[in-house]
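Changelog-linked ticket: 7TS example.
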Amino acid sequence: MSEQEPRIAELHAAQPGDRRADFPALDQQINGHSLVYLDSAASSQAPTAVIDAVASYQQNDHANVHRGVHTLSHRATEAYEGARDLVKSFVNASTRSEVVFTRGTTEAINLVAQSFCRPVLKPGDRIVITHLEHHSNIVPWQQVCEQTGAELLVASIDEKGQINIAELIGMLDERVRILAIAHVSNALGSILPVRELVEKAHSLDIPVLIDGAQAVPHMPVDVLDLDCDFYAFSGHKMFGPTGIGVLYGKEARLESMPPWQGGGDMILEVSFDGTTYNELPYKFEAGTPNISGAIGLGAAVRYLQGIGMDVIARHEQEILDYMTSELNKVDGMRLIGTADEKASVQSFLLDDIHPHDLGTILDHQGVAIRTGHHCAMPVMNRFGIPGTARASLALYNNRDDIDRLVESLNAARKIFS
Ligand code: 7TS
């Protein structure tokens, strides 16, 4: 064997798709069939590296952070803050103080709505979003508009599920206090031209929040390059634990914001005459944080960096293209979400089979998809449908998974014909 060969073998083993063995939950039978997991947009499975990191912390190092002089507290603090450093490098933030741990994307967006927007919004001000947002990037803005008298403007989408960019840009003027947009739509898979939109918004001094929940697990994300003011994402969609997520915010923006929640850890000094607040990012992390969740998220970041986000994006694009062409061959198929730029998600309807019935039949064959409105009811209204079936991909999916999906869809057609 030449010296080259083991290295080539190693590189080959590192390709996504072959990574199924890293994810113990994928190795099981569901209703007598090997599991095909196509619901990663809702929540992805965790690799052994993440499961072990969380277990090792719980077994050996658990204590509260930032407050103990004893060894376990030091270890817990080091691991928790180490995870912040990993996230910082993963999204290319400028400093670790720009990485705020939250419960997830939802909490991150609520934090911005309540701390960044609410104190300054007044009647006549505007917030701009798009028609394809997840409820998490709609409802917090509706609430803050109700609280302040500001107005919510919604940029429309076309039949393919692409935003009408000219219309959106036309909405941006001196009345707009924030533009809040998804990076990737969870219901349609459309990739939004976020960099271009940030540039346009910034030329009018409008800050931009990007909901990156469906982007971060699937493609390289560089917040410095995007130049966005805020970027939100969730650990459980990127192979980490639930209950942990991140708000990235530009330091100057975060500095200018009052704390959102009060309690331990977010203060420097408390007396009944008044309280002074801690520095960033702790100002926004009141109470004992999700320590094991952050450590698991750090392990997920390490895992993703070990493969490379470029490699993952290329792999998923290939599987997505294959899935699209194979689904198009199924009689009675109607794809919902056919944007030119897409990632990782395909919604569809099959004949007039109710999506829930379809999901149940697929589950009987070991194929896990999500059905319903996907927390994007306005998208469903736009297409005049109550819901869809949705197959969503992650780095561990391969062509065999798509073949199994198509087989089970054809079997479902037979049952209903
Ligand atoms: N934003 C987007 C684009 C999402 O896809 C989701 C979750 C959220 C925000 C909320 O994330 P959380 O972690 O705070 O709950 N999307 C989905 C989904 O598509 N199916 O289940 C959850």
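Closing comment: Example verified and attached. Residues 41-42, 104-106, 134, 136-137, 182, 186, 211, 213-214, 234, 370, 374-375 surround 7TS (CB under 6 Å). The chain has two domains: 4-46+308-416, 53-305.
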